[in-house]
């Protein structure tokens, strides 16, 4: 079972440039991490919102991470930090017991003799590594993965089971790709010849930077001519569609179920809410936030928060709202006719004269 002294936990946070001051017994042994509602003796929890201070009264945790302002409300051992939620993220990393996707190279893995395999590489059962592939040091490839010809995977990257990487893809250092994800599949490119769809071979590839995480069952299409590019530090959730020639700037975060059409450029430090749909062949500026279920049909040229969609309503009210929306053109014409009548009517003062 995992265990660590509270003082040692504070030291490890300090090594991550997050100062943590111990209040109470630094020799207290912490064996787990839990929410403030479910924590039990031996566990540590965190308070990230001072508005929830009353939850500390009944909290059973042995220690809590909080800010100095919340210390007077705490009756247990504590780690005092400026950002409890960030501390929680680091503590979760320290206590993470998730097993590696693979250890060593399984005999059932098929590795081409023309592939270059670095030091301390692990390849899971039934994985296929084709010719020309370069796998750098400390890469871990889970069971059932496919790595296509001439692909490169950077140092320290990890692929969970059943990830498919097509040919000539480049993945940077310390990336994490979850199960079922497909990188480098053909973009949706066709020409129409008198009703018959003629496939356009996708001749570009996918370039992924360093420290990128891609969730489960996400698809990143290869470029048609130019490349699809995902910048350093980008995080992408599960079941997203990234179409051909999309460019995503550094440190952008994309929530689950987002669909991006082709030749879209997204700036740095953006946040895209879940289930959003973004049109192609346009640009979105740096530091743009699109809230969940956003429908983006035009370029966004300035940083800011953008929203669309109709909030959930009881069905009867929604049906009335929908009927009004469907009739909005007619209502607009009627309003314009009324405005023209008002503009043409003399004012009372003019009549008196």
Automatic annotation (TrEMBL):
Keyword hit for Repeat: yes
Name of the gene encoding the protein in the UniProt record: lpxD
Gene Ontology BP, a term: lipid A biosynthetic process
Catalytic residues as annotated in Swiss-Prot or TrEMBL: 244 (proton acceptor)
Enzyme Commission number(s) from the entry: 2.3.1.191
Protein family membership: Belongs to the transferase hexapeptide repeat family. LpxD subfamily.
Keywords, sorted A to Z: Acyltransferase, Lipid A biosynthesis, Lipid biosynthesis, Lipid metabolism, Repeat, Transferase
Reactions listed under catalytic activity: a UDP-3-O-[(3R)-3-hydroxyacyl]-alpha-D-glucosamine + a (3R)-hydroxyacyl-[ACP] = a UDP-2-N,3-O-bis[(3R)-3-hydroxyacyl]-alpha-D-glucosamine + holo-[ACP] + H(+); UDP-3-O-[(3R)-3-hydroxytetradecanoyl]-alpha-D-glucosamine + (3R)-hydroxytetradecanoyl-[ACP] = UDP-2-N,3-O-bis[(3R)-3-hydroxytetradecanoyl]-alpha-D-glucosamine + holo-[ACP] + H(+)
Subunit structure: Homotrimer.
Full protein name: UDP-3-O-(3-hydroxymyristoyl)glucosamine N-acyltransferase
Top EC class of this enzyme: transferase
Reported function: Catalyzes the N-acylation of UDP-3-O-(hydroxytetradecanoyl)glucosamine using 3-hydroxytetradecanoyl-ACP as the acyl donor. Is involved in the biosynthesis of lipid A, a phosphorylated glycolipid that anchors the lipopolysaccharide to the outer membrane of the cell.
Pathway the protein acts in: Glycolipid biosynthesis; lipid IV(A) biosynthesis; lipid IV(A) from (3R)-3-hydroxytetradecanoyl-[acyl-carrier-protein] and UDP-N-acetyl-alpha-D-glucosamine: step 3/6
Domain UDP-3-O-[3-hydroxymyristoyl] glucosamine N-acyltransferase non-repeat region: 28-93
CDD domains: LbH_LpxD
HAMAP family: LpxD
GO molecular function, one term: N-acyltransferase activity
Keyword Acyltransferase in record: yes
Sequence intervals crossing the membrane: none
Cellular component GO terms held in the UniProt record: membrane
Organism: Candidatus Regiella insecticola 5.15
